[in-house]
Design goal:
The protein is mainly α. The chain has two domains: 76 residues, no CATH class; 40 residues, no CATH class. The protein has a two-stranded antiparallel ribbon. Helix 1 crosses helix 4, helix 2 packs across helix 4 and helix 3 packs across helix 4. The longest helix has 19 residues. The protein is globular, with a radius of gyration of 17 Å. The C terminus is likely disordered.
């Protein structure tokens, strides 16, 4: 798929229109993040991440974007909702999972320039059972 500037601009507008039609009850976390950081609403790079993940299907991308912010709120709380999560945001138990070898970041990026990570779920080791994601996050 050729990503011309016109095509990308059109798809981003379609995603924004879809988000405007999306039920308020299902986009509450995203709306809260935009309230906390108004520039997030104009972040075309963010929209493009979700559009690319769903092959530029704005309906699927809107759903995934809203679910992303729901999960982010549940995992990290409201203070970190509008923030890009980095390793500095993880606690000691979260870091232990990464250091267990169950998560690997590949040295090369994909065709779109994104980092690629592989997760070996059976190899994950948690210090506390509560740190495991619930089935709704999987």
């Amino acid at each position: 798929m050729e990503e011309t500037p016109e095509f990308i601009a059109d798809r981003i507008q379609a995603l924004k229109a879809e988000l405007a039609r999306y039920p308020v009850s299902k986009r509450r976390s995203f709306d809260r993040a935009c309230f906390l950081k108004p520039s997030l609403e104009m972040d075309n790079k963010l929209y493009l991440l979700f559009l690319r993940a769903d092959r530029f299907d704005e309906i699927a991308a809107a759903r995934k974007l809203c679910l992303h912010f729901d999960h982010k709120l549940a995992l990290f709380g409201e203070a970190k909702l509008p923030k890009t999560i980095t390793l500095d945001d993880l606690d000691e138990d979260d870091m232990a999972v990464f250091q267990s070898g169950s998560y690997v970041v590949l040295p090369k990026k994909d065709r779109a320039g994104r980092g690629v990570g592989l997760i070996n779920v059976p190899a994950m080791k948690y210090r506390h059972w509560k740190n495991q994601a619930s089935p709704s996050f999987c």
